[in-house]
Amino acid sequence: MARRATRTVRVGDIAIGSGAPVSVQSMTKTHTADVDETLAQICELAELGCQITRCAVPNRAAVQSLRDIVAGSPLPVVADIHFDHRLALAALEAGAQGVRINPGNMKDRVGLRAFYRAASQRAGVKVRIGVNSGSIRGRKGLEVCEHEGDLAELMVSETLEYCRDAEEQGLHNIVISLKGSDVPSTIAAYRLAAGRCDYPFHLGITAAGPPAASIIKSAIGIGTLLAEGIGDTIRVSMTGSPHEEVRAGLAILEALELRQQRGVEIISCPTCARCEIDLCELVEEVERRLDGLPLKARVAVMGCVVNGPGEAAEADVAVAGGREFGYLFLDGRKLRKVPAAELADAVVAEVRRLQPREDRA
Ligand code: SF4
What's the pLDDT tens digit per position in 193-235? Predict the structure, then answer.
């Protein structure tokens, strides 16, 4: 699919923009002041395929730890900062390869401009100007005021105004994010901004909820935009582990074929009254035993011969269930009949035999 043309922005050694593949990022959920715990989590995320990590920097203790985190991190580190430009300046000093701010909540405008100038002097440092619909509306104390007009238009115009301010200070390495309170308003804001600027976009659905809800909202919101060529780096946010955020992000990119499948892809049917084997148990076991196998392969596990042979034709290894047995397929060709109790072993053995053929699609 054609990507929206953007400038290219660097965060450490990762490029963000239409000239680079869409990247996946996540945010650590440890206390940033705890260097060991935070680095351990970053390493786990990197292992899963995460490319950029973000750490909340709410106070001095966190910013003091940032230098060691950046030094030990296998991923570029973005400092997430609110309210205080001095923390943003300190994050630059600590070597952070990116800083995420919401200019709307920075109290000191002169200090904010000093931060823009300092960031503009550092190669490989990007600044994400991230706004959300809640933060651009007026507030009375802790209460957000109602807004009458078009919220997407307000978000986009405010964000571009912030960007103009940053550009006037010489900062061009800018990525923007525009998060509405729900999926439709988020999509509307990004679509609107897409025609008005060439900044790369960080996509995400804010406060998306617990894992199941987040995965649905993110797949729809992020997926819709990516399918239109909009979006350059993504973060699935969820009330849950960052590992799941990364897995979900990668799955979205793989589903849209924006990233090559890592590991074994399992295709399976929903089962119905025609199924005469325990397909759920079989799929679970095959998935568990093939998890982490460094091999690109597609495995179809189907309940019966209605759709089994069709999926087998598209898969490297496949099984189509019968009455207490299954037909085993390799590259669409029927190999043999296998008793139901031996199906998992047979599928796993055939997949393992594929290993030398690393160039499979
Ligand atoms: S493949 Fe067979 S068992 Fe599975 S859903 Fe289709 S008809 Fe039902």
Answer: 999 999 999 999 987 788 999 999 999 999 999 999 999 999 9
**Which residues neighbour 283 within 8 Å (Cβ) at sequence distance 6 or greater?**
266, 268, 301
3-state helix, strand, coil in the chain (%, to 5): 40, 20, 40
| CATH number of the domain located at residue range(s) 264-353 in this protein | 3.30.413.10
Ligand 1 centroid – CA 280 distance (Å): 12
Question: What is the distance in A from the centroid of ligand 1 to the CA of 270?
Answer: 7
**Would you say the C-alpha torsion 152, 158, 164, 170 has a positive or negative sign?**
negative
Query: The whole model's pTM is what?
Result: 0.85
CA distance 39 to 97: 16
Distance 258 CA to ligand 1 centre (A): 29
CA 198/CA 176 separation, integer angstroms: 10
Span(s) in the chain for CATH 3.30.413.10 = 264-353
Domain limits, CATH 3.20.20.20, in the chain: 9-255
**Using an 8 Å Cβ cutoff, are 125 and 97 in contact?**
yes
What's the half-sphere exposure (Cβ side, CA atoms, 13 Å) at 143? 3
61 lines ligand 1 (CB under 6 A): no
To 10 degrees, what angle do helices 85-93 and 109-120 make? 20
Tens of pLDDT, residue by residue over 103-122, are 989 989 999 999 999 999 99
Query: Rounded mean pLDDT of 114-139?
Result: 86
Question: Could you tell me if the CB of 271 is within 6 A of ligand 1?
Answer: yes
In sequence order, the 6+-apart residues with CB closer than 8 A to the CB of 106 are 83, 84, 85, 112
> What's the whole-number average pLDDT of the chain?
92
The average pLDDT across 24-53 equals 97
Q: Does the C-beta of 270 come closer than 6 Å to ligand 1?
A: yes
Distance 316 CA to ligand 1 centre (A): 19
Match 């990197």 to its residue by tokens: 46
What is the helix (H) or strand (E) element at residue 253, kind and residue range?
Answer: helix 242-255
Which CATH number describes the domain made up of 9-255? 3.20.20.20
